[in-house]
Amino acid sequence: MFTGIVEELGQVLAVEELENACRLRLSGPIVTEGAKHGDSIAVNGVCLTVAENASGEFTTDVMAETLKCSSLGLLRTGERVNLERPMRLGGRLGGHLVQGHVDGVGRILDRTTAKHWDMVKLSLPSRLARYVVEKGSVTVDGISLTVVQANLESFTVSVIPSTLGLTTLGFKQPGDHVNLEVDLVAKYIERQRVITTDERESHDW
Hints:
15% of the residues lie in helices and 40% in strands. By secondary structure, it is α+β, with helices and mostly antiparallel strands.
């Protein structure tokens, strides 16, 4: 489990294409400190497992399903990525509960720069619209953000200077793809609603 508070900007050092998979080698001196084989690290919001770790770098394997559901397959050598280690049990929850299980891929549609913040508009897969509400939480490339406006096919977030300086949202531009994870609690509430409705209909005389 993660919190959506990015710890550092890592860099893609190598991308090895495999059959229905790929292997990434990434730099990340902060997140690799004390990390060992089998540990989890979120890369642009995707929970991945450390295969190898040495000298501030780590290697991770990305399976076909993850490539299909996220933007990791678009990564190229030299690109910067958001990195976060899992939250420690009993630690501070600085953002919100984030699983690292991407629900869909969006695109940056527009961004407006002001003196103290940037307003970023992103596309939203229509199937996820029910989980995104104004003032609610959403994860964009592993960053915990608050929704400003929510529409059926898009939403906006306001990004403060510290977030712009510490994450990929500081330099991503319209057209760039981002990983989206909607609020975990919202998904459970929706699931319960569906089950309750089905049960009610099955007993409808």
